[in-house]
Amino acid sequence: MYHLFITENGSPFPSWQKAFPDHRISSPDEIITGELFDIIWFKLSFEKDAESQLLWLFEHYGQNKIVVLTHIPRFVEAIQCLKGGARGYVNVFAGSQTLKQIAEVVNEGGIWLGAELMQLLIASSQKIDENLDEKNKVFH
To answer: Is the pTM above the cut of 0.70?
Structure first.
């Protein structure tokens, strides 16, 4: 598997290197074309808003499988990433074994969310279902 990690300073995390010895590191200033990657891992920057970074990411790499890495996982940001086309959303400090699991899931066509975010997503969908049930009640 060949992975591309895009991070604002172009520096890898040790867990990335351990999980995927055959990888490439890039910064958003360098747009890579003509190479095929199994997954593109994109680390969100603190210094820019997530929306503009995601627009850039999907404009340049949207045809690839993308996993977004973040320092502080946030529910709204996770939903924004997934709606934009990301196949995963994970804490940047995830260990090498977790990164390998994410790669397996994504390469098999799945979507990866951490356990806490998945629980929030399920809780949100339950609230939506309750609201729909309330709205669909028949009154006599």
So the answer is: yes
